[in-house]
Amino acid sequence: MRRLLLLRHAKSDRSLPGMRDHDRPLTPRGVAAASQIGAYMARHDVRPDHTLCSTATRTRDTWMLVAKAIENPPATFDDRLYDAAPAAILEVLRETARDLHCLLVVGHNPGMQDTARQLIASGDVDARERLQEKFPTAGLAVIDFPFDDWKKLHRHAGRLDRFVTPRSLDAATD
Questions:
Q1: 104: domain CATH number?
Q2: For 140-169, how does the pLDDT look when each residue is reduced to its tens digit (9 = 90+)?
Q3: pTM of the full structure
Q4: Buried b (16+ CB within 10 A) or exposed e, 67-95
């Protein structure tokens, strides 16, 4: 069995004139949301064996805040994940070593949402509808697959275990 964690970067700052998109930092709200998702992952023992992360500042910063909460598993920073389409994301995933059972990808929308939509065939109906509607910043999709090798990854092969967002976590604690 394989588990894929798709994490969209946390809220980033668009207000800095002249800054390249690749270099945008997290906002204070983004820092809080990434920390919140990291704490959720630690509390619910959702820990990857390895992380694949886009090279953008906002994805790196999101990863560093999450990694702090889940005891810093190894990570690879891959330019191919920067603003990547689902086909590119799937290509990177299929290169994953067979001995890694749980993989986290930290990336961008619309790639994260579109990849999740392509991979999910079943799972909680409410969570699937929320994911179809919107994949907000710092949103985390947990998708399980019944195969033993990442090379076998294909459309509609996965089951959505859960879809967690900062807003859904806030609502659960109200």
A1: 3.40.50.1240
A2: 999 999 999 999 999 999 999 999 999 888
A3: 0.96
A4: bebbeebebebbeebbebebebbbebbee
